[in-house]
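Much of what follows relies on a compact textual record of a protein's fold. A record is reproduced here so that you can trace the correspondence yourselves:

. . .
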Amino acid sequence: MHNGVADSGRRPGAASVMNGNKREKVVPRQARGVLRHEARQYGKSAQGAALEYYGPQSGPVDILLMAAMHGDEVESTVVLSEALRRVPVSALRNPVILCVNPDGVLRGTRCNARGVDLNRNWPAGNWSPDPVCYRAHGQTIQDIELSPGASAASEAETRSLKSLVQKLQPRTIVSLHAPLGCIDDPENTPLARWISEQVQLPVVPDVGYPTPGSFGSWSAENGIHIITWELPPEPIVEQIASHSPVLYKLITSEYELKEY
C-alpha cells in the first residue's frame, strides 16, 4: 500500500523485520527506559531547542509519524515514544518526530514560544492572518485566541518541518493529536481504516470546524496523504496500551492492509 492504495499481498518487509535470517524481537521491557535510536536534527525552535527526528536520512519513505505539534497535547509524544522505544535499532523503517513543538511542550501551551499555533501557520491557500481560537481540554467553546503567525510559514518550526518533509518525501504522514478520539482522513484510505480497526476509533472526513493554514491543508495541496490520529480522552496508561503497539507496527512496517 502506498498513499492509501491497497494492494492484495503483504507489503514489502511488512510482517517480518529481519536481521539476516533471524527475526528481530521487540525490545524487552527492562531495556525500554532510554531511547537508543540516533537523533537527527532538522532545525531549531524559536527558543533554540533542537528539532529532532529518528530514522532514515532521506526519502522517499512510506510513512512519517509525528507528535506534539500542539504543546498541550504531550500525551501524543509519550504514546509515540513508548512505541519507538520498543523498536530495535535495526528494525526502524519509518521516520519519527516525537515533538514538533518543544517550546510549547515545555510551557504546556498549545502555541509555540511566540504565541503562534503551528497548525495554523502553514503556507496553504487557505491561510488567514485572522486570530485562531481553540477550546481548552474538556471545554466545548472555542474562545481562546492564538496567532496564526505574522505570515504563512513565519515560524522556525514550520519552515524546518516543511524542509524535512520535502527531504523525506513521505507517501503518508500520520500526525498525532488529542483529545478528539478519531482518525481524520478525508480520503478514507485503507490505512486509516486499518488504524481505526486496531484502536477502535471512527474514521471521519474532518474534525468538524475550519482549519485555515493547517498542516493538513498544506499537505493535501502538495499531494501528500495525511492522517490525523486524534487520541481519545483516556488515562495515559490506557492510551499507551491501546495505541503504542499499533504505532510500533507503523514504525517497523509490520502491518497488513485488507483489500476493500
Remarks:
- The chain has one domain: 39-252.
